[in-house]
Every structure is written in structure tokens, then in C-alpha cells.
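Protocol step 4 of 6: structure prediction from sequence.
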Amino acid sequence: MSAKYHLDAHCTALLDQYNNNMPLYTKMAEVVPSLLKKFLNEADIIVASLEHRIKTESSLAGKLEIKGAKYRNIQDITDILGVRVITFYIDDVDKIASILERMFTVDWENSIDKRKAHEIDSFGYMSLHYICRLPKELYYNEEFPEINQFRFEVQMRSVLQHAWANMNHDAGYKSGVEVPKVYLRNMSRLAGMLELIDDEFSRIRSELCDYRRKIQTLVASGNLKEVPLDGDSFRSYLAINPFGRLNKKIASINQAEIQEVSLMNYLQLFIKMGFTTLGDIDNLIKENFEAAYQIACFQLGLTDLDIVSSSLGPQDLCIAAFLKSGRGKEGLKFMFDTLNGPSESNDSMAEFLLVQTRDLPFMNQ
């Protein structure tokens, strides 16, 4: 098969070695990406894509035609198996590199950090290329003992760097025609914008992480009046189980078990009720705790339910708040519409609750 290429005897022998080793390359292409996915999951790093390819025979032959003399044997060619990791954030590239350094054996002499080689006054293709081996302590296969000797390449870059590389390759290399300077200048401007966007995405993520840590600290310290009500802060608030004491008291009515459910749908209701901080929810609990318990006694007292939802506590707190404020049926229907979606049955549920709760002690205070 190698006769169809313009190769000398040495390069033809290399191509024959390549074809003979294809089962080994296929096994490497199975093992390496699988291990890398496992490492990324353990490190809780989400990537845009993780791709791999085995260099085709025609591609390898083209490479050998140009510089085949530099390779003594097929093991000297380090990119027959290539893995590419595309990250969402540019700072994740270094995190993944750190994982590779710990898990694989890195050939530093042949690895390239094209980010460092980048000229300060230009923009363009940047990525980190590691040449690696599988250490025996990580993976060994008696059927393929050579798997720990052959090297493979891992390229790491961000989504925007990947976009630039593809655009630059299409415009600059594939056409075979020299690109006019005006287009090169425009592409350089675009590349500069992409790099700035890459940096901004990472900066925003870093600031969001700092914000979340600050919110968690404030919630843990009890300074709830200082915490704005939003998705992140409400999630942190739920982590300290603010409705837990009320739910336990409600469950004791029937000695019931509490079934934990997500309470994130209450965020929209609390915002529509005009709450702006976690302190507002804390006040809702303090001011309506006993009233919510009275409502729960009415709801469960004549039943034999032995499982209650963890949403019962916050729901009864809101029912109590709407009834105390005088919003009555209109407020209750608004609550059910917000939590469950608009429905005709919400009107009848609101009417039923209004009638059945009018004689509860908190309504006559």
C-alpha cells in the first residue's frame, strides 16, 4: 500500500511499521481519552469537547515525504494519536495541564507552549501541546505491552482559541493563495478581540466565584439582611435548611417522614412578593411560624399521612402571610399560579383555603 506514495526505503519502512501497529494505536485511542475524561470528572472540570484522532496513512505519508529522515523509527513520531481538549475558559487550560503532569509522563523536550512563544505585538493561534506517555502504574495491558512506550499528543486550548485556529487555517493555509494584507490585518484585529473576550470570560467567572464565596460566608454568619436575594444566594440559604424547624414541627403532627424536594421554585414567588434580601425571608419565617403551623394542623389533623413534603413549610408560611395581609383569595391564587403555573384549579384551591382557615386562631388576633 505504501508504494502509492513518493517515499524512500526508510520512510516506506516507517509507514509499514505504522500499519503493523494500528491495533496498538486503536487501543491507545480507547484508553487515553477514557482516562482523561475520568480525570476531568474527578477534578470537576467541564470542557466544551474532548476529541481524538489517529493520524491517517495519507497524512502520515505526507509528513514523511517532508521530514521523514528525522525519524529513526515509528516511535519517534509523537502525534500519531492526537487528543484535543477544548475548554470553555482559558484558565482551565492550565488546570488540565496540571492534571496531565500528575497522571501522565510528559515529554518536556518535545512539548510546546505556543502561548509563551507568541509575539507581544501580534495575535493568533495559541495552545498548549503536551507529548505524553502512559505510565505503567496508571495503565498496563499484557496484550499491548508497548502501549507504555509510544507517545501521544494532547492539545489544550479554549473555545475561542479553537475558533481562531480554524479560521486562520482556512483563510491562511488551505487556499494556497497569499492572503492580501488588508484581510490579514482584519483577522489580526478579530484575533485580538477574541483574546480579550477569553480573558473577560475568565475574569467574570473568577468574580462570580468570589461573589458566591462571599454570599456563603454572609449566610453562614447570619447576616441575612446584607445578602441580596438571587439564585446564588437563595441556593446558599437553602443549604442551611431555613425551613427545617418548621417542617419538623409539621411532620410531628402525624409523626410523618419528611420528603426532601427542591425549593428553588419559591425564589420566583419570594421575588414577586417584594422580597429583596434573605433577611426578608428570615422575617417571613419569624413572623408567620405559628400561623403556618396552625394551617398545617388544619391540613393534616384529620389525615393519616405519614410522608410530608419539605415544601409544606414554606407554602404554609406564604399562605399565612397572604391571609394576614388581607389579600385573601387573590393572594392565594397568585401564590398557586406562581408555584404551579396558572390553572383553573388554583382558583378553587384558593377559595377552599380561604373558607377553611378563617376560624384559625391567627386569623382572629
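Step 5 (inspection) to follow. Residues 120-124 have pLDDT under 50 and may be disordered.
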